[in-house]
Fold these 2 entries.
Entry 1:
Amino acid sequence: QVVLVESGGGLAQPGGSLRLSCAASGFTFNTWAMSWARQAPGKGLEWVAGIYSDGSGTFYEDSVKDRFTISRDNAKNTVYLQMNNLKPDDTAVYYCHVPAGNWWGQGTQVTVSS
């Protein structure tokens, strides 16, 4: 059974930082690419970032490029999203995602507000 558990969300001020984590189990983590996606209030799901199974390649949506960093620790079956210089438009529920398997976590809320 595939399980993805996100953590690390919360309230941040504009310009602040948060680090999201996604702990994975139930599949061979180091053979699957991973992604983060988000859904803002009243909006559709938006892909944010992706990373190859071995971490050799990372990809970002334009609005988060140079502010967010996706990484993974295959020894810990965990993928991370470091979010810096947060903006109010980053407010959303953030989801961990395995694209090839279409597996999703339950999401973690990120709110950016002063």
Entry 2:
Amino acid sequence: EVQLQASGGGLVQPGGSLRLACTASGFTFSRADMKWLRRPPRQGIEWVATISLSGGTTYADSVKGRFTISRDNAKNMTYLQMNSLTLEDTAVYYCGWAVFRGQGTQVTVSS
């Protein structure tokens, strides 16, 4: 059974930082391209970033230069370092693999 559990969300002021973590199980993590997605309030799911099995990264334009995706194959985990957060980054954040998306973690950016 594929399981993906995101954590690390919370309330942060504009300009602040958060680091999200995702624990994965039920598939061969080291062979998987992993991604982060988010769902802003009253909007649909957005793709945020992807890290390939070889470590290559791609980002949505809205987060490029502010967010960094990484992975630790030994721990079956992927991370999303989020810096210079803005109000528009408020969303539920999910990690994903293939068609699977686990439970998300709420990130709220507010002053």
